[in-house]
């Protein structure tokens, strides 16, 4: 089998064509010149995957294209979901958009009804000519039809500018397709290649569809050109292939080349690997679920299989939302080419990669150290059995000396940093350490992937494949507690082999809006039949007979009022309702008995069976095999280094010399022409006809005792991953068991580990306003209770004076005991949807006293010796808040109890995992490395502060900023250059206000730790160490240290932003960002009239603005900043759920402050209400503009306006100010203009300015399935 580098332009134009040429030479026995076109007469089928689309997307090298969208939404892709991609990146670099130009068409439709209406009334569609029904059955109001003559002129202008590829995405086109079809028809007539959003994936969410349509318009022409170029190597060109040429799609199905599109090609390569391991390794009779690890050159692709392929339908690749069916594959930045670094006393693997060119150091092209070099130096690879395709001329073997040379240089650096008092590390110890860190880097997301869906990692078997899979399997399995590793016969080329096993698939999906509780079975059956006829027709045209076509049926379901959808495969009894309930219970740990189950989409996969089907099960083969020890080998034993014993004589065995049933006891290296498999000591390999099984044979020896006096950099890195993994697993449990939307869907929570004194060790996810605050809550409880707590006790707190942020954020705190002593703490803070008070949602815009904001709990033992105190919860959440005038107890007590139990379970899970870690490594070691990780962060901050001291020549750093009410925040920072410590003095800050803008002291600490982490240029563990160099001086009674009875709900969302602006101003880091969250609420109902509660709804959102410019960057437009990163609802979902029409959500052009680097622009959000509602706005920077820095001009102030239609028909424009509440009638608008960011540098010095949109650099994940979605949601709060 030919083995070629994927890119080698000096030796061949295209690797797949060259492979086919060499295969044909072998088959025909005739030399075929590279210049000769290949004949297809002896080719039965060519099945391929390609990274052409993926690379074009990641590298931004696609086709010039334009986007056509609804008026008011030209910035739909720029704003997206308004969250910034990286929380701690002040420059907020986004990748360039795929389109070059946007054209707005003056058309508009909306949904006539709204799902949250508690008293829906029947509507006569025939009585109003503006009404019609959409594909989903929803009633559509056509507000404006497009003027087609105007559209023609717009298309002509695009044509004259050279555009030939268009994307069309209009609001609500997933259900009302007519306007897109009209515009598409005109565009096609003019000669454009057109990507139409509702045809590509007819699912709700305009942001996702617009991204997907633009991605298709951007990628499909590139894909087509590649196909034509590939065809040039064959007689007759691409058209000569007919149905012989099949391409793998992202969903795991093949399609003919002429049906292959860029949008569905993004996971073309890794999808083959998933099909490969699922078809070759899963046994339906055994039923053991599998975790697949495809370890390639730059990364590892992780997936899970339990009898059916798992798909996701919306992912983000290189900051582009792709709405299309894709296998649930998750990329981890660790592969054979992942680079190795020593930073801040820690071993770091990736995410940077050596790539295929120049590749690792051993490729002899001047590349850096990588994982492959570590394996080679340790003797785990066999260079003499690798093809000679390395070096400048692609004709040399792997070079172990090149690897050893760079490891020797690294060893000198590491040993010098460790000092003379510690034993020197050999290059073998260093290389083995990096492999251990790499294995742990892969294990951490696997734990999250499985645990977040209610599965235990240890109950899976591990399938290893890819170029580096055979070398890392035992290390990963050992860390995960997995007892069996399966390596398929073609493990190194399983992605390619998987394509030979795959079937041709046609996906058909349509949106709907069905209540499964109603009698809709016949309607669903008819829709399935229609879709199956469509799929069968497509496959029949490709030569498939009806006997070779099968169908898979799915419904995309959710509970009414929830956005969490589950794609449910049709069960044998065809009871989709029962299947949905069972799957919801499995994944989330609960069901909602009183909620209707809604179906949003009907989906059919039409499958033309065409792949290889006679594959032996590894489990069946193992059971019937005659197991015998393998004796002897034609190769001499090799010295291989293993952590612990060092060098061991290791058997080297060629796989084709072993018969099925032979067993090889480790240590051993098994190899053939395509793979190298390491069997570590303590494991036994069983060779079968088509697999190698590696099972744990003897328990591993306990690790050598670690020196508690000196830090081992390998253990430091591994422990960092372990601590973060525990926090992430806590988060998985909380999300899985919780019931409220805030926690389950918005992930408005944080889980964390703390040292015995309450110092932060690891925190996940990172919600900025929780970062420094939670340790205050833990310390308060630790000091309050002392040694009186016992195992089984859990504490609850939310009060600002006890380390809380604002009252809805409730914190459960659990002491972790070992031998009767508290050795760690775990805590989970979560935002509860309601905890009582004067307003539904417990975030009143005009609260003056804290009791108006709901339940106040300084310390409550919610669980005592394992017994949950439900009566106490009712007292604190319902009885006590309701005693105050004008206030009520919680309106969601059942949800509160369920979510608190989820938080308790999360904390107990963390405590259990800590105990497991202590049992494995000893308490002394675990706590030593806990302190060491905090020390790593501390040293990084101290070094940074020393650098800042030199930059400012030792001068004190001072700043002042004001709230719109006139309250001032004053700060003076003094840095000690000797220690690297600093004093943050907030003396002269204004007294607390009679309002709700008071910020608890814990919020101040969150702002400090956020800024310090953001100023660091390197990635460090985020923990209490960041604050250890800082002393904060803060007089009592200020707006940042209010009294216990002060209202604080606005301090958490707005004053927190002013805190960060003030600190950044003192450091002269950047211009001010928008400085507010722009909190908007609207709704009605909730109050009681004549003793009867009025049913209604409530809605809350925060709105993005402009980011401040900095010394080397332009401020980003339309993005959330600093202490929040909340995603905003898609217009199509909001209009379906609530009585609103969002006429505009766009960039507020020109609102960013001028400067050498201009501040980012804010947003314009124009919302019309279609019924009477209560509206409240809580915002800042309406009176005081966001400052500019170093001569830069301030950003524009925000403006809140009410377009009010009076009863006599007069329309008035009313300025609402920064904070207000009012009743708006049907036809009224609220228009929110959010602030811009401050500029940086003098406006007349505009040379060498930075770009807002970056060129792709480093590793960008191609496969972002469920796991990436989980992490992204963690960062959007």
Automatic annotation (TrEMBL):
InterPro entries: ACX-like_C (IPR049517), Hydant_A_N (IPR008040), Hydantoinase_A (IPR002821), Hydantoinase_B (IPR003692), Oxoprolinase-like (IPR045079). GO terms for biological process: glutathione metabolic process. Residues 520-697 form the Acetophenone carboxylase-like C-terminal domain. It holds the Pfam family Hydant_A_N. GO terms for cellular component: cytosol. Residues 209-507 form the Hydantoinase A/oxoprolinase domain. One of its GO terms (molecular function) is 5-oxoprolinase (ATP-hydrolyzing) activity. Residues 712-1243 form the Hydantoinase B/oxoprolinase domain. Residues 10-189 form the Hydantoinase/oxoprolinase N-terminal domain. Belongs to the oxoprolinase family. This is Cytoplasmic protein. It comes from Kwoniella pini CBS 10737.
């Amino acid at each position: 089998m030919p083995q070629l580098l994927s890119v080698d332009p000096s030796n061949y134009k295209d690797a797949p064509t060259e492979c086919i040429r060499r295969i044909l030479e072998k088959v025909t026995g005739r030399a075929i010149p590279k210049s000769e076109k290949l004949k297809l007469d002896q080719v039965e089928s060519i099945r391929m995957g390609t990274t052409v689309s993926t690379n074009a997307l990641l590298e931004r090298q696609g086709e010039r294209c334009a986007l056509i969208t609804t008026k008011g939404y030209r910035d739909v892709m720029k704003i997206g979901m308004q969250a910034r991609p990286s929380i701690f990146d002040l420059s907020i670099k986004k990748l360039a958009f795929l389109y070059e130009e946007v054209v707005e068409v003056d058309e508009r439709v909306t949904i006539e009804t709204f799902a949250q209406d508690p008293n829906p009334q029947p509507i006569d569609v025939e009585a109003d000519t503006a009404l019609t029904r959409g594909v989903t059955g929803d009633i559509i109001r056509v507000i404006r039809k497009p003027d087609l003559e105007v559209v023609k002129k717009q298309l002509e202008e695009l044509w004259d500018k050279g555009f030939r590829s268009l994307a069309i995405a209009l609001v609500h086109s997933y259900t009302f397709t007519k306007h897109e079809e009209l515009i598409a028809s005109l565009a096609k007539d003019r000669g454009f290649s057109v990507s139409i959003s509702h045809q590509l994936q007819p699912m709700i969410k305009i942001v996702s569809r617009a991204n997907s349509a633009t991605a298709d318009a951007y990628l499909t022409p590139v894909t087509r050109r590649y196909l034509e170029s590939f065809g040039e190597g064959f007689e007759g060109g691409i058209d000569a292939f007919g149905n012989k040429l099949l391409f793998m799609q992202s969903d795991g199905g093949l399609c003919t080349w002429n049906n292959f599109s860029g949008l569905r090609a993004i996971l073309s390569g890794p999808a083959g690997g998933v099909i490969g391991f699922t078809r070759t390794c899963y046994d339906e009779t055994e039923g053991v679920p599998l975790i697949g690890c495809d370890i390639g050159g730059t990364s590892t692709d992780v997936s899970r299989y339990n009898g059916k392929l798992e798909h996701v339908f919306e992912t983000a690749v290189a900051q582009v939302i792709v709405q299309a069916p894709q296998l649930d594959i998750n990329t981890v930045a660790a592969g054979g080419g992942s680079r190795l670094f020593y930073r801040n006393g820690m071993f770091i693997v990736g995410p940077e990669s050596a790539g295929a060119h120049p590749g690792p150091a051993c490729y002899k092209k001047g590349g850096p150290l990588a994982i492959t070099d570590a394996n080679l130096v340790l003797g785990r690879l066999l260079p003499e059995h690798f093809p000679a395709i390395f070096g400048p001329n692609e004709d040399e073997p792997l070079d172990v000396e090149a690897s050893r040379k760079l490891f020797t240089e690294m060893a000198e650096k590491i040993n010098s940093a460790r000092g003379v008092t510690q034993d020197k590390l050999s290059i073998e110890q260093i290389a083995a350490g990096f492999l251990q860190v790499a294995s742990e880097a892969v294990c951490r997301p696997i734990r999250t992937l499985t645990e977040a869906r209610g599965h235990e990692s240890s109950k899976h078997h591990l399938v290893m494949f890819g170029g580096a899979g055979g070398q890392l399997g035992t290390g990963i399995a050992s860390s995960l507690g997995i007892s069996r590793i399966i390596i398929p016969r073609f493990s190194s080329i399983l992605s390619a082999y998987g394509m030979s096993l795959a079937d041709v698939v046609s996906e058909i999906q349509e949106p709907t809006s069905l209540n499964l509780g109603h009698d809709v079975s016949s309607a669903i059956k008819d829709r399935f039949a229609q879709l199956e006829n469509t799929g069968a027709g497509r496959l029949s045209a490709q030569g498939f007979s009806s006997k070779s076509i099968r169908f898979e049926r799915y419904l995309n379901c959710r509970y009414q009022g929830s956005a969490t959808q589950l794609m449910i495969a049709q069960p044998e009894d065809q009871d989709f309702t029962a299947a949905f309930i069972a799957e919801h219970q499995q994944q989330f740990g609960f069901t909602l008995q009183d909620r209707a189950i809604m179906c949003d989409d009907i989906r059919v996969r039409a499958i033309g069976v065409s792949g290889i089907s006679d594959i032996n099960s590894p489990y069946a083969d193992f059971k019937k095999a005659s197991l015998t020890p393998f004796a002897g080998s034609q190769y001499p034993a090799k010295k291989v280094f293993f952590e612990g014993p060092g060098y061991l004589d290791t058997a080297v065995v060629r796989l084709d010399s072993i018969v099925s049933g032979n067993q090889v006891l480790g240590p051993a290296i098994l190899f053939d022409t395509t793979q190298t498999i390491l069997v570590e000591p303590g494991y036994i390999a069983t060779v079968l006809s088509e697999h190698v099984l590696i099972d744990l044979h003897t328990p591993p020896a306990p690790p050598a005792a670690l020196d508690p006096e000196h830090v081992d950099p390998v253990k430091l890195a591994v422990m960092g991953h372990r601590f973060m993994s525990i926090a992430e697993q806590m988060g998985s449990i909380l999300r899985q068991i919780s019931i409220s939307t805030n926690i389950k869907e918005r992930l408005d929570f944080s889980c964390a580990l703390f040292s015995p004194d309450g110092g932060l060790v690891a925190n996940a996810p990172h919600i900025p306003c929780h970062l420094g605050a939670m340790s205050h809550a833990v310390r308060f409880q630790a000091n309050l209770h002392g040694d009186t707590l016992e195992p089984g006790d859990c504490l609850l707190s939310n009060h600002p004076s006890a380390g809380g942020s604002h009252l809805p954020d409730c914190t459960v705190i659990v002491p972790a005991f070992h031998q009767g002593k508290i050795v760690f703490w775990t805590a989970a803070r979560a935002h509860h949807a309601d905890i009582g008070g004067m307003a539904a949602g417990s975030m009143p815009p005009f609260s003056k006293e804290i009791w108006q904001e709901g339940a106040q709990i300084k310390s409550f033992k919610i669980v005592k010796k394992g017994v949950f105190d439900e009566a106490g919860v009712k007292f604190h959440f319902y009885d006590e808040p309701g005693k105050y005038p004008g206030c009520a107890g919680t309106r969601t007590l059942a949800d509160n109890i369920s979510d608190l139990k989820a938080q308790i379970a999360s904390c107990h899970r963390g405590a259990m995992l800590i105990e497991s870690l202590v049992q494995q490594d000893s308490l002394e070691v675990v706590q030593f490395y806990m302190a060491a990780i905090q020390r790593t962060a501390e040293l990084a901050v101290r070094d940074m502060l020393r650098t800042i001291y030199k930059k400012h020549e030792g001068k004190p750093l001072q700043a002042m900023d004001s709230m719109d009410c006139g309250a001032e925040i004053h700060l003076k920072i003094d840095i000690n250059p000797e220690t690297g410590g600093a004093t943050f003095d907030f003396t002269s800050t204004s007294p607390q206000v009679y309002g709700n803008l008071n910020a608890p002291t814990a919020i101040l600490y969150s702002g400090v730790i956020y800024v310090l982490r953001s100023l660091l240029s390197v990635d460090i563990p985020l923990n209490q160490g960041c604050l250890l160099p800082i002393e904060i001086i803060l007089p009592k009674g200020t707006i940042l240290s209010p009294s216990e009875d002060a209202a604080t709900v606005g301090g958490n969302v707005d004053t927190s932003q002013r805190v960060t602006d003030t600190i950044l101003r003192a450091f002269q880091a950047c211009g001010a960002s928008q400085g507010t969250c722009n909190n908007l609420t609207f709704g009605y109902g909730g109050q009681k009239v004549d003793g009867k509660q009025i049913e209604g709804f409530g809605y809350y959102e925060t709105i993005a603005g402009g980011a401040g410019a900095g010394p080397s960057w332009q401020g980003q437009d339309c993005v959330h900043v600093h202490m929040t990163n909340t995603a905003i609802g898609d217009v199509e979902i909001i209009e379906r759920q609530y009585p609103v029409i969002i006429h505009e959500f766009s960039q507020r052009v020109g609102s960013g402050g001028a400067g050498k680097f201009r501040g980012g622009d804010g947003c314009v959000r124009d919302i019309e209400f279609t019924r009477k509602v209560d509206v409240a706005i809580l915002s800042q920077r309406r009176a005081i503009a966001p400052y500019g820095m170093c001569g830069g001009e301030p950003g524009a102030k925000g403006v809140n306006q009410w377009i009010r239609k009076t009863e006599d028909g007069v329309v008035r424009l009313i300025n609402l100010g920064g904070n207000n509440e009012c009743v708006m009638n049907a036809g009224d608008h609220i228009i929110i203009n959010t602030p811009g960011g401050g500029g940086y540098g003098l406006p007349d010095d505009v040379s060498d300015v930075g770009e807002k949109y970056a060129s792709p650099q480093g590793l960008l994940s191609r496969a972002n399935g469920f796991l990436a979605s989980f992490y992204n949601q963690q960062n959007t709060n």
